[in-house]
Amino acid sequence: MAMMRLRREDPRVVGAFRLHRRLGAGGMGVVYLGADKRGQRVALKVIRPELAEDQEFRSRFAREVSAARRIRGGCTARLVAADLEAERPWFATQYVPGPSLHDKVAEHGVLPAAEVASIGAALAEGLVAVHEAGVVHRDLKPSNILLSPKGPRIIDFGIAWATGASTLTHVGTAVGSPGFLAPEQVRGAAVTPATDVFAFGATLAYAATADSPFGQGSSEVMLYRVVHEEPDLGAVPDALAPLVYACLAKDPEDRPSTVQLSERLGEIATREARGIGAPRREGVPKAAGPRPERPVGRRAEEYAQQQTAPRAGAGTGRTTGRTPSPAPASRPSGAPGASGVRSGTSHPQHPSSRTPAARRAQGASQRLMRQRLVVFVIVTLLAAICIAALQGCHRLTGGLDAPAPHAHPIPSAPPTTSGPLPRRA
Predict the structure, then answer these.
(1) Residue ranges of the binding site
(2) 8 A C-beta contact, residue 354 and residue 363
(3) How many structural domains is the chain composed of?
(4) Which residues form the domain of 79?
(5) Are residues 213 and 262 in the same domain?
(6) Alpha-carbon distances, residue 418 vs 51, 176, 414, 423, 424 (angstroms)
(7) Which residues are annotated as a binding site for ATP?
(8) Which of 94, 128, 145 is the last residue of a domain?
(9) Through-space distance between the first and last CA atoms of the chain, rounded to whole angstroms
(10) Which of 65, 262, 353, 358 has its CA 20 to 30 A from that of 108?
(11) What is the dihedral of CA 412, 413, 414, 417, to 10 degrees?
(12) Which of 103, 139, 232, 401 is catalytic?
């Protein structure tokens, strides 16, 4: 993990800990590397001065501490100490040496299938402990996973939702990071452990491809793709693609549980380590060529205006963007991605929300119609050119054979008589 020197405005001592380096900064506070008198190293998070007077931010901070206290096991950094009543609230967790999954992929490139499966198995086991504690992380992503020598650790529960917690989410807001948000989060519906499973699948895809399965773009574009488009798993290894695809199902009920993920990924990691090839993937879209044209500009903006307000009592946390009330529309109850929408609200069905087979058939039909139209236009133009050429040739040959216009016959010379010409008188 990259460390930076302390700045002039940074504190040097917080509680019983002396601060040595900066580890990073987020939306709510700054994280420092510190140590107590016994030399125990901690990651100490201090709320920003400008937010210390904001009661809402203090509540979020307190909830992050509460979530850390509820979780048992080695999947997260253990809470060491906290002071929520200080002028600038803070808490300290056990320091986890090692880079984040995001940094490792950025520095060393994509990970082999065996390593991705091994990390995923341990991470899924950690999510089991998180969910058993009644906590939903809601912002699982590569930068929130630290790769310690003892296994991956989940950090940053700043927007986590816990059973019985009051809501801090504003009406019309989405929570989390675009590209790793589940469709129900985009719509503002209630979060469940299946919400973390969707982010888990997107995280595995990132580890295997160094990219989000929904590509790159603005927040509005990414939210549109998450809800309406299938993920691009063309570069995901065959051993992992079916499982990742199942995690990224639009309907939360169609996603596997964390226990199933842990068991299945453990099997895949063992098989890949032994060099046993995986069976060919079935039922998983695999891009054959460049990505199709993505919705941008007005289409993405229109989608952002169609989002529903979160359900009362939904999860809490920081926002990534506000979405106004949706325009009146209707959506079939059986359409993909319809699950989890608040009663009384619906979304217009988009062609990309159909099944992959139906979209491929529609695309082939449209391409055939365009080809026929092009052939028709070309044949019509060639016929017109040939007709015009034939008419020009006919006029040219006819003009050479006909007499010149306004021509008159030349009169013949008068007959001549023999003998001398008569003389004039």
Answers:
(1) 45
(2) no
(3) 2
(4) 13-94
(5) yes
(6) 137, 126, 13, 15, 18
(7) 45
(8) 94
(9) 140
(10) 262
(11) -130
(12) 139
